[in-house]
Amino acid sequence: MAKIGLFDLEKHFSFYGAYHSNPVNIFIHMLFVWPILFTSSVILYFTPTLVHVSLPNNLVLNYGFLFTVIYAGFYVCLDVKAGSLAGLMCFVCWVFGSFLAQHLGFSLAWKVVLAAQLFCWTGQFIGHGVFEKRAPALLDNLTQAFLMAPFFVLLEALQMAFGYEPYPGFHARVKAKVDANIKEWKESKQKKKL
């Protein structure tokens, strides 16, 4: 069943889909979005501890953990099945990002993170400029771009691989909204040329 407001997956996914309709651009995002989240977890390991609790393997409850909980919880609220998988993937990124950060130390970790982030973001911008021929969604909705992108690429992969839908008719309704949004954008772009 469709939800409303902040948890309206259909609305969010159709917004995202309107900026990601080219198959090459979709593939590029599938390759680069989760590494961006992972490397963010690496650098967030070095943020201050929020709660002092003894955890195994020197894991700390810091801002990396806080963002992980927010992302995972939000994804589960959007769709319990796919959201649970996305939430698990977020926690895996946090745990292994923490291990990598411990291993590298800050003086090397920030350089690795910077290089990976630049590479992944450049790939996505190329995907938009060369293949999608449309500016990235983050220019219109920064929060959605950062919070929603990992879930969207996972949901896209689940749909492609297994035909997964959060509820019956989801993809048909989203496709209709995406097509309408793209048509409106193209008409607006055409008017600006005149």
Structure overview:
This protein has 194 residues and is mostly helical. It has helices at 9-19, 23-44, 63-78, 80-104, 106-132, 142-162, 170-193; strands at residues 49-51, 61-62. It is 75% helix and 3% strand. It has a two-stranded antiparallel ribbon. The N and C termini lie far apart (43 Å). The model has no long low-confidence stretch (mean pLDDT 91).
Which helices and strands appear, and what pairs or packs with what?
Layout: H1 9-19, H2 23-44, E1 49-51, E2 61-62, H3 63-78, H4 80-104, H5 106-132, H6 142-162, H7 170-193
Antiparallel strand pairs: 1-2
Helix pairs in contact: 1-7, 2-3, 2-4, 2-5, 2-6, 3-4, 4-5
Please provide a brief summary of the model.
By secondary structure, the protein is mainly alpha-helical. It has helices at 9-19, 23-44, 63-78, 80-104, 106-132, 142-162, 170-193; strands at 49-51, 61-62. The protein has seven helices and two strands.
Strand order of the largest sheet: 1-2
The proportion of strand residues reads: under 5%
Helices, by number, come to: 7
Q: Give the helix level as a range of percent.
A: over 70%
Mean pLDDT: 91
Number of strands: 2
Distance between the termini: 43 Å
SSE pattern, N- to C-terminal: HHEEHHHHH
What class do helices, strands and sheet pairing give? Answer: mainly alpha
From the alpha carbons, calculate the radius of gyration and give it in angstroms: 18 Å
- Major sheet characteristics: 2 strands, antiparallel
Question: Low-confidence parts, pLDDT < 50 over ≥5 residues?
Answer: none
Quick one: overall form? globular
